Amino acid sequence: NNQVFLQRIEGEHTLNQGSVAELLCLSTNAHIALKQFIGCQVAVDQVTDMGQFFRTTGIITEASQGQSDGSLTIYNLTLKDPTALWHKRRNSRVFMNKSVRDISEILFKEWQGKSPLFASSLTLDTAGLTKDYDVRPFVMQSNESDYDFLTRLWRSEGINWLVDESQLFVADPNASIQPQVLRLIDDNQNYQALERRSLRYQRSSATEQFDTITQVKAERRLQPTSVHVQRWQADALQQEEGSGSVQGTQKHSEHYDNAS
Predict the structure, then answer these.
(1) CA-CA distance, 260 to 246, in Å (whole number)?
(2) Each residue of 22-44: b (16+ CB within 10 Å) or e?
(3) What is the pLDDT of residues 19-58, one digit of tens each?
């Protein structure tokens, strides 16, 4: 848009969360209706140290107008990946005899059919799923948003999700915006390493020719030693246990005890 100019971008791209960025823009037009920004597909191209155009795309979900000095006006825009739309629908429904993969594909196709914006901005990639997932006799979505429901199912099966760009680099900033890709991954071998493989780590005290890492921070958190998930199966009364030990005393009956 020749009326809005990007001055600054600050964002995060996180595994199992998605991407969000704050765009600080300037414009000579102080009368742009904020509703014109909402729902727009946006591409931000950043020039890397190798001279390539690194593309970040998404949907504008929030817009606010800042101060104006009479010549320039500030517009603050929030850019998020298309999964942010899943927060806007809350539902209660039941799935019978479906696996987590089946449910994911059903909801994804449903959104594609109902939302042209979603259909044009996101595609689903399940090539990273290498396991055969159990068919669940009963799965319930109870007054949950579609985002909370799907991410809960993926976590229960150990599935990671990553919102990726279909084109990380473009030859021309005027290239058309391509849909982002939602990748479902259950094995670390499906992650790709940087082509560069290594980045220099040094203090931030000079202008460098190439990108560098200027700060490294260590962090540790208390984590559970084992995770035990109980899932009701009408035709197979048994429990599966992961690493660690289960200290529960609950029994299904006198004949079926806890796994040990």
Answers:
(1) 7
(2) ebebbbeeeebeeeebeeebbbb
(3) 999 999 999 999 999 999 999 999 999 998 888 999 999 9
State the sign of the Cα–Cα–Cα–Cα dihedral 195, 197, 200, 201: positive
Let me know: does 145 contact 83? Beta carbons within 8 Å.
Answer: no
CA 16/CA 135 separation, integer angstroms: 23
- CATH number for the segment(s) 84-164: 3.55.50.10
Per-residue pLDDT, averaged over 166-185, amounts to 92
- The domain limits of the chain are 5-82, 84-164
> Which SS3 state, helix, strand or coil, does residue 256 take?
coil
What pLDDT does 189 receive? 86
- Whose structure tokens read 């199912």? 153
- Is pLDDT of 258 > 80? no
Question: Residue 80 CB: number of other CB atoms within 10 A?
Answer: 19
Please give the distance of CA 92 from its chain centroid, rounded to a whole number: 23
pTM: 0.81
> What is the rounded distance in angstroms from the CA atom of residue 153 to the CA atom of residue 103?
9
Instruction: Compute φ and ψ for 45, nearest 5 degrees.
Output: -105, 120
Cα angle: 141, vertex 125, 118; to 5 degrees: 65
Q: What is the maximum alpha-carbon separation in the chain? A: 80
Residue identified by tokens 């964002």 is 11
